Amino acid sequence: MIPNPASGTSSAGLRAILLTLATVIGFAAMNGTNKYLARDYPVAEVVWARFFFASIGILLVAAWRPGLAALFRTRRPGLQALRSTLMICSTLLFVGALSVLPLAEVEAINFAGPFFVVALSAPLLKEKVPAAIWVAVLLGFVGILVIIRPGAGVLSWAALMPLGVAFLYGLFQIITRRLGGVDGAMTSLFYSGLMGLVVTSAVAPFIWRWPDLKGWLLMAQAGLLGAGSHYLLIKALDLAPASLLQPFTYVQLIAAVIIGYVVFDNVPDLWTWVGSAIVVASGLYVLFKQRR
What we know:
- This protein is an all-alpha fold.
- The chain has one domain (about 5-290).
- Helices cover about 75% and strands about 0% of the residues.
- Helix 1 (about 10-40) runs parallel beside helix 11 and helix 2 packs across helix 9 (about 215-240).
- Mean pLDDT is about 80; it is low at about 1-10.
């Protein structure tokens, strides 16, 4: 039995936290790379490259583990297909949002995902959600509105894309819960990457712009960062419960702000900071109530 990581004396808990921090920084770096690529290449091509190189990374990681053939075996192919479809759609929307919005703003709006998970868990999973959590969820959506500020700018419509990503993420998490205990995490990761590669490969020839060496290297970087970050997250969840690790995922927003400033010279405005603070505070409150 793993010692309680919350006690502060568990080496497993500390390793899980460090792995989570590496995970979210990797995700922020991947998203920054995708934003950089989306300036010169079509969105569908950037997404294809992510799935292509991520699939290579997943196979390389799986090859080190026993039972490589187990990746192909699933007891719920229908749910795996639905989960993969949600992943493809959300990735296309996310990269599309990155192509027109600042990185930190997209990341902040995307953190509405857990609120959609709570909202959808009641009708889809028949879970009872306390009134206090519903209030926190509503406040979280208020924070999103503060960031978006409907009608405040010509790009306000583009904020609907990361909001759509957050909604799809909620559905994605619900399906992932349904698959828990049925298929392994690596199997789900493999199928989402494989189906994403197949779908985007059918589209890529019609929009293809041949990358130069720098483009190929950045595409490989994005794909391998994605696969590696997902793998680190799986390892972290093997060591500690998600309730312990979830607060540390908000470091991704800090990393996005730093990358956005250093690479793209973007500094979030006051309302983005205020909205982000509301979203983070609401998310942490939901987490605290769920843990209790």
